[in-house]
Records
---
Amino acid sequence: MEQKQARIEKIAVLNEITSEVAHEIRNPLSIIATSAETIASKKLSAREIERLANDIQEETERMSGLLKRLLSLPTQKTIQHSRTDIGEAVSRTFKFISQKAQEKQVHLEFSCESGECYAMINREAFIQVCLNLSLNAIEVLPENGTLKAVIKADRDTVDVYITDNGPGIPENIIPRIFEPFFTTKPEGTGLGLAISKRIINEAGGSIKAASTAEGTVFRIRLPGAED
């Protein structure tokens, strides 16, 4: 009986890892494909080609890191967090999604109201969270929609607000959006927000969502890491 239970638990862990790998490599692959298509289909300057090629290389390396981290889940209880420049990470995220935003004519706006802001979180994992939220927003935004990221910080915490002026999230769904495998998308896995919540919680932070007449707001709160 104990061996059977152990085997069931191992299968459950493997299914979880497989689902997470499938979901989390989707975003980098999407950015790589978009960059490659842009290089192939447009007349670009040498500088623009170099920028897109760098994006492909960086996303390939990030995808390799994601796979390594996800495959280590059975033996690694938590992600290793360190002091991260939150402004740089959000700026990098917007750089990665700029081509997709341009294709949908979505406007990107980013501001940091407190100068340099540092928090204790794994940089790659935090970019992963920002990509999940940003790409979800771009999917539902209409043409000429707006996606904003605003960073606010005080002595102890760093808040990141990711907002859009899309259709919003129905009130009855908001309590469930962070549940694993809950999705309203026909081809969704229901893992993006669940993974994002786990990453933020493991860093000692919190993530909340709200829907207003103006759209959707996600607030990420992280412990500050000033010198």
Note: Helices lie at 2-24, 26-41, 46-71, 86-103, 123-140, 192-202.
---
Amino acid sequence: MAYELNDLAGKVAAITGASTGIGAALAKRLHEASAKVVLASRNGTDLGLDGAIGQSCDVRDVAQLESLVDKAVSTFGRLDILVANAGVGHYSGFLDTPREHVAEMMETNAMGTINLYRAGLPHIIKAGNGGDLITVSSQAGLHGSPVRPSTAPASSRRWGSSEPSMRNSARLGSAP
């Protein structure tokens, strides 16, 4: 089902996990709605979108996300939309998933979201025009999954880290 987007001319969006899947689809839709898009992914693709910026980025690395946000602001003069989409998962039983894979999920899915919001929110708040935080996450964070029980804790942390960020930002006047 396709949803209608408002005209986003003049708006700037930074999207993590933007090279494939949901992230690429969101990037294309935002671009079609006239937003300027800054795309973060492991391979740094701009998806061939006219005027888009693609940058290689590991969301676990705060400096790389700060660089992404700085590039958006220095190129387009503002930042309005943050899309936390980058994530990893593992298809194995909870006890069968190695600890290092669980740690990777927590660092990428949960901390990657927090890192993006901490890097981008100051720019959105400073602009004072409102903004949008969009968190893409697995349903496993809400009610678990029998085929991916190891993914649930990371997805739950992603959901849990997003709501307080949005509430705090709304109090500061950055949300419409």
Note: Strands lie at 12-16, 36-41, 53-56, 81-84, 132-135.
